[in-house]
Amino acid sequence: MERLGRLRRVKRVRNLATLSLVVLGPVLAMATYLVLGPLGQGADTFSLRLILLTDLVYVLLVAALVLSEVARLISARRAKSAGSRLHLRLTGVFALMALIPTVTVAVFAGLTVNVGLEGWFSDRVRSVVGTSLAAAQAYEAEQRTDLISDARTLARSIDNARNQGIVLSDSELLGEGQRQIQRGLREAYLIDGTGQIRARGDRSYLFDFEKPTAEQIDQSNLDGLVVIEDWPNNDFRALVPMQSFVDRYLYVSRDVDGDILSLLDETTETVRLYQQLESDRGRLLFEFGLLYLGFAVILILAAVWLGLWFAERLSGPVGRLTG
Prior knowledge:
This protein is of the alpha+beta class. Helix content is 72%, strand content 9%. It contains eight helices and five strands, in the order αααααββαβββαα.
């Protein structure tokens, strides 16, 4: 009786260990998904390394147990022990029951992901993304080109008036030039090399004045004109050295839609990310396949181990009855 009780306890512990291993498989798969997906963990985090190491240990452990059990079954079959043939057949049936759904789901999952990616990278979506970037760039280029043209036109007009000896103050020359430009300039100033205002045009007030930096003034001397983008204040400004004045610069501004221009950086970044994803589409599919393969191996091994355990419990009594 004592020996029988000890055998029952060993069998109970073995059954508990088997069921624990089977339950641990889906738990590890879910934990891996949570770490890789919704929790947004990076590839270098400790939790991800720990869960992947646990997955590897689990796969190696269950694979070793399954192989040892299969080897024992084959040995028993060769020895023609009672119930070995039924045990082997039941094991094959349970293995197929685990493999067929997994392979089927794998095929449909791969097709679904591929179809989804094809939708993301279709010609229509690619055209919309490219058009959005082109529209933002065209708006910026148009505003920049118009401002440069108007600034140079106004600078030439003032230089010509000064050279022709027209008796008008600098402020009057600025205002007259502003009125002649059809697209209109919001503000026009004449400043010196230190950025101080020397003359103001129409509607050019001191509280709206944004003093250019010394670097911007030096850049205008080198390039002949510099455009200053001020998206938060919804304007573009141009700085032009005057030819007929000593130490004078024409400083003008134009109203723009800062929100649209601010979207240019976002659109550029979005297009860059889209193009990167498109170029990495094959790698993404491959990584998804590897990830799914890892999940499948864990679940298949757990299912096969459960099938072996169930087949042993089912074939043992039958084998003893027929033996």
